[in-house]
Fold:
Amino acid sequence: MTDELLEELLRARKARTPCVLATVAATIGSVPREAGSKMLVYDDGTGSGTIGGGKFEALVVEDSLAALRTGKPQLKTYPLHEASECSFGAICGGEVTVLIEPQNLNTSVTLIGGGHCSRAIARLAGECGMHVTVVEDRAAMLDGFSLSVLTISDVPAPAFIANRRWAAGDSLLLVSRNHELDQAALAAAIGVEGVPYIGMMGSRRKVRHVFDALRATGVTDAQLSRVHAPLGLDIGADSPAEIAVSVIAELLKVQRGRSGEHLCAQVSAS
Structure:
């Protein structure tokens, strides 16, 4: 893989851009490209790099888009000669086996706010294998985050939320520095049907205040019922690290459809 293609792949994964890495895994006879040749295919059918061009590459793109829908890798052989009934008219004379790998983008956590709790949640989420994005208007607050975290300071949180392409497994956590910012972000989130999980940190008093303010603008109780607020499980969390445990535990509980009860209780009941 060239440095340029590797860097593009890393950028796509960091930005959670759906894509497939197609690699020539093996060849027989006369073929357009040698084993190890690679290309990226995006969900709109565009791509970078080439594994041979022509009808053969068009078929790989088609199969890559199908793999994106299933999320399953595929090892497929393409005959480039007339002797095979599966041939598409190519006369190169050989065969190409291609490894088609949809990129696993993992569970995504978007944090609105870059304070102490956000840092702790981002750290634990990253250790759990989640892709983390932090949106914070104070650019200086983003310096301490891991390089693996996508940080955004030049787009207001409501605009980011409204324009993002949300997917299954995504979550939005509102942990900004004041209730006005959380309220504006929550108003945007409620207006986006595709956000699978919305959580807002704060006291019960803050939650009631924000919910009442949104109701006054026409937001319904049904819409507010989508919001996990106050965010987290009741474990008596106090420090940012403990709050992170509470938050990530609830997030995993909801996403995986688990009960959240004590494991020992399940043993006792069996």
Remarks:
- The first helix runs from residue 3 to 14.
- Residues 198 and 227 are 5 Å apart (CA to CA).
- The mean pLDDT is 91.
- The longest strand covers residues 19-28.
